[in-house]
Structures
1.
Amino acid sequence: MTEARYIMQPGLATLLGFVAGCSAPGGPFVAGPALPSDEPARALVATDDGLAIAFHLSSRVALWRRDGSRAEVEVGLGPRRIARVDRGSTELVTANASGASLSTLRGMVVATTTALDAPPIALAAGDLDGDDDDELAILTGIVASAIEVQIHGLGPPLRRALPGASAVAIGDVDGDGRSDIVAVLESEATAVVLSNASGFEAETRVAVCPTPSAVAVRRGVIAVACRSGGVDLVEGSSVRHLEGGRASYDVLLDDLDGDGALDVAAVDRLGDAVFVWLDVTQDQAPWVYPVGRGPVALERFDFDGDGARDLVVLAYESRTVDVLLDTGAKR
Ligand SMILES: [Ca+2]
Ligand SMILES: [Ca+2]
Ligand SMILES: [Ca+2]
């Protein structure tokens, strides 16, 4: 096992705000500001001009624009997840757990409200039929045994039973150029792929860490955030565990440092940190960045407008949005 590289003492980044004085070589990111979110939130998503945050307690979405201005809109009750949906124009969709509904926002106005027959747990957006317009995969259910995925946007909603599912993602798993649906089953420590080629009928199951909490897909790789710590990487039937942290609550797969190789980032809710593993094909120690207390979600967003996307982290307990600025450093 490789040893993690800690950049700074936990908490210091938050104290300093901008950490110009932090001289340690820091990998692809450096601590930026911690912005107060006033009330706790669980979900955020980047849009073209800002960062949209869903506040489940007050049932609203706030858009923090890069120019510093802010806009707010009231949505259905208890928005716990938010997704960016591209259908000609960009829409935001919230999954309203208490209201058992979806709110679709266009330009920070609620355009439609869609009633669901059970509360939504998670949602993912992606183009499933190759027409460049995004469809939605929504996990719904009250009890674990009754959870299903509803696929909206391909005519009448398709429904597939997925008992115990806790998170869902859309991406091409099998490399046929069409996006598949991936879910993780918390109760069974399993990742399930519903393949597009089968009309989302055929299921492929892979055993992963216990209590998987989030999932991401890119370039045929599935990343599973493990609530027991670290990330499982699934390629085909092989699973590799990336060790780091005590409780991963969200995970992101992307080329974070611009060298072409796929990287992984995860938030450690108990360790108040973000772990970044560069190049998933290598077995390298993660970079570790302290953030606010109780980080639950992360996203890529060009916070400072320099053209390079930074990492933004939603910290639940400290009620902050913590920014890790891209340094442009490749290794
Ligand atoms: Ca489509
Ligand atoms: Ca990379
Ligand atoms: Ca940037």
2.
Amino acid sequence: MIFLDEISNSRLTSCEITAVIDSALCVGAGGSSGSLADKPIVRNSEGNLVIPGSQIKGRLRHECEKIARGLHWAVCYSPNPQTMCPQRAGLTKNFDRPEYHVSGYEGKHCLICKIFGNPVLPSRILFDDLICTEDPENLPEILRPGVTINRRRRVAEEQKLYFLETSPANTQLKFTGQIHLSDVPKNANAPDNANESDYAGALILTGLRHIHALGGSKSAGLGWLHWEFPNLPLKEAAWDFLAKGDGE
Ligand SMILES: [Zn+2]
């Protein structure tokens, strides 16, 4: 077993999160196309259903970007490296503010990049895969075969057979895993550091609450879900910090 705190220089704060699936679950399986990253849910080697951590991270970044912009912080545009910090091609908002300084790194990095990273800045946040707590034995596989119809020739196209794997509806399946957030290294030149750890936690948990569904489309994707996570004692200073987006 690898202990993350031992391979990382800074201390990690970990928090267990659980996604509870409210609707029928639709799993890309068999001949479905697309890379692993496009699949909202997969199976691990033990046969457990898994929501990849990369899926959660991508969606959470997107939600946190929207929230930070709503609070008038200048935020870059991911995932294209050219429009992300520190390049920000074509972006005119004011990124030249003290909160966007990162000790040891050149250029300015927006609040979101400081948590989720960018091509030059490592991410402070790590996501485990969320693993379904239900024994796969208790989850009968329901495979619904489908074919792509060629409209012109009115025949099923070869090589276009796909399967949709669905789970029994409304079973409130739970997927559990951990989020790890590393502390900002202490630096006497950047007195704001203390508040930074706090703002990240506040922003992340607020962003999670905004993820109501996973998957490409809500009708064909993973379905609707809600989250369970511990009620962390977030400091008032974290919200005060986030509220200063317009620099007032
Ligand atoms: Zn950025």
